[in-house]
Amino acid sequence: MQTIRVNLGKRSYDIVAGNGIIKFLGTHLKRLNIGNDAYVITNPLIKNKFGSLLSLSLQDSGFSVKFKTVPDTEKSKSIETAFSLIKDISRYDKKRRIFIIALGGGVIGDLSGFIASAYKRGIPYIQIPTTLLAQVDSSIGGKTAVDLPEAKNLVGAFYQPRLVFSDIELLKSLSARQVRSGLAEVIKYAIIKDAKLFYYLEKNLNSILLLKPKPLTRIIQCCSKIKAKVVGEDEREEKGIRTILNFGHTVGHAIEAASGYKSYNHGEAIALGMLVAADLSEALKLIDRCTVNRIEKLIKYAGLPIEIKKITLRKIISAHYRDKKFIGSRNRFVLITGIGKTKITENVPLGLIQTAIKRRIH
Ligand code: GLY
Question: Fewer Cβ atoms within 10 Å of its own Cβ: the N or the C terminal residue of the chain?
Fold first, then answer.
């Protein structure tokens, strides 16, 4: 078990990551003194799989536990679901000291964090991520949100959890596609910050895909450290430091949106976005073709797409211009000058962006 601190003054918290650690959750929570009554937001499948394990650990430490399930779909990240859960919490709240547990992937984490930020102007919450993507990325950092029909993540707040508890045991029943999707974010961390991690992935990807505990724990701890450091330096994305986490996301989000959030999941779209960003970096002479090829090889080896299928350039470009990462009408890309080194570049000519995207369309 390893503890990684996210240093944010009064809002600091630990990420505890390891294998088979859920039984120690109650003990960890007791030390935090955040309440007695756990309101667990999850989905039916996860409740079935891990609900009793979680209850046992919490009840052993004297906590009461109430589960609330929402469907396992992005649609649960809505104002309507948040409102209905807040009403349920307020009915349950009488004479209790409630805190929220987000038990699930990114949707559950973002929704629960948003509810925790809004109810009574903020109550404590903790994250127990159950997907690789959530363990390495979305459970850490305090960006919480729900979607509007107009765009994803449009209503939200920066609101940090009090603990992130990442047990790799909870990843065992993920589908291969979900594992690959999480790996896209792992690869992102390596490309933007850690050449050694990139090399480690090149050598150990097979065992990671097989969910071997040792390499899996290592990459989760490694990525958690990178995210903790970046968030600690730029909590609210005001200093341009946190922006590097958006590597591959500008075009990635556009591909996700242009596909109607259907043909590509988040990780797959980000993999394609990272390739476009790498191609753009080469076009601007920041890296050579060898580096792009290395990235492409790793992404392919991880079973992620390297070609965009069944989406037109026009659709991607128009979704790209709707992305909220634009400042006014200027575009902003996280590009790379090598593995582990980024360069934020504004006003990349549209022609170059189009060529880079076109190159990936087949
Ligand atoms: N909740 C994800 C983040 O803050 O980056």
Answer: C
* 110: amino acid identity, one letter: D
CATH for 128: 3.40.50.1970
Neighbours of 122 (CB within 10 A): 11
109 shares its domain with 132: yes
Q: What is the best residue among 108, 143, 237, 249 to mutate for testing ligand 1's pocket, by most ligand atoms within 8 Å of CB?
A: 143
Task: Establish whether residue 161 lines the binding site of ligand 1, counting it when its CB lies within 6 angstroms of any ligand atom.
Answer: no
User: Given ligand 1 and candidates 138, 241, 245, 246, which is best to mutate, with the most ligand atoms within 8 Å of its CB?
Assistant: 138
Please give the model's pTM, rounded to 2 decimal places: 0.95
Closest CA to 167 of 29, 19, 298: 19
pLDDT digits (tens, 9 = 90+) for 273-288: 999 999 999 999 999 9
SS3 content of the chain, % helix, strand, coil (to 5): 55, 20, 25
* d(C-alpha 270, C-alpha 267), whole Å: 5
161 and 185 part of one domain:
no
